[in-house]
Amino acid sequence: MRRVVFNQKGGVGKTSITCNLAAISAAMGLRTLVIDLDVQGNTTHYLVGEIDAEAYPAEAQGVAALFKQTVGSRRMAANPDAFVWETPYENLYLMPSSPILTAMEKELESRYKIYKLRDALDKLDEEYDRIYIDTPPNFNFYSKSALIAAQSLVIPFDCDSFARQSLYSLMDNIVELQEDHNPDLAVEGIVINQFNSQARLPGELVAELQEEGLPIFDTYLSASVKMRESHRDHRPLIDLAPSHKLTAQFLALHEELEANVKRLKR
Ligand SMILES: Nc1ncnc2c1ncn2[C@@H]1O[C@H](COP(=O)(O)OP(=O)(O)O)[C@@H](O)[C@H]1O
Ligand SMILES: [Mg+2]
Question: Which of 20, 162, 216, 251 is the most exposed place for a label (fewest CB within 10 A)?
């Protein structure tokens, strides 16, 4: 089961949501792989901390190495599992980002490697029960590759009015991508993140989106400083603060996702 977490708006919670859902999935005993397609590498940093650049040069890091071997003579030699790293957490695995993803993008795009991630993940389906893909805040080669490779799309939404406009353009892009590349991609739902129930505007905004028929998960995520602490300490919430309110919300959201698995898996 492959999920992509995407919104082309930055700072909406893609990385936080990807990592925390995946960490819960792993804690529940599911072999879980996180793929970090954002050149900023926030997910990589969150889950494994600083990478030793001497031991792992940029071109040897996870996603970059995977795409590298699709170009030229080293075509798809290694099993994609060779690019997966362990994390400090049981059952949780990571295909890390790399600082050279931006430099590689033009070549991959011009050589039409947009289906290569999907092909690689086809080979990993046996190895992992759940795959969560974190994306950059752009509709670029990497996020498109992820949307083509995934069965489900989870969209983080941060409740400001600019977010709404970007949500509509996101939906347009998704419809086009479904038509052109991946008719099986389901828009599983929108995650309301950093929801403030005290303020009037966020509630109204969410109600309007619901009236427009957009799929919104029942569980809303609150804003909490625990999230920042969790990033700083490289410890997902389920590990850092298992009984915190925000962790409970993530557990509830994860339960909603798990309830959908049978339907989405085909
Ligand atoms: N529920 C939350 N409560 C508090 N801070 C949050 C929450 N979700 C995300 N953040 C913070 O917002 C910032 C952006 O989140 P991030 O997950 O990196 O978004 P994206 O990956 O979409 O850019 C980070 O500093 C993160 O710690
Ligand atoms: Mg991010």
Answer: 162
- Ligand 1 contact via 182 beta carbon (within 6 Å): no
Q: What's the mean pLDDT when you consider all of the chain?
A: 95
Going by CA atoms, what residue is nearest to atom 9 of ligand 1? Answer: 13
- Taking the CA of residue 11 as reference, the ligand 1 atom at the shortest distance is 23
Rounded to the nearest angstrom, the distance between the alpha carbon of 42 and the centre of ligand 2 is 6
Q: Are 151 and 261 in contact (CB under 8 A)?
A: no
State yes or no: pLDDT of 55 exceeds 90: no
φ/ψ of residue 112, rounded to 5: 60, 50
Q: Is the pLDDT of residue 75 over 80?
A: no
- 2-265 sits in which CATH class? alpha beta
Nearest ligand, CA 244: 1
SS3 content of the chain, % helix, strand, coil (to 5): 50, 15, 35
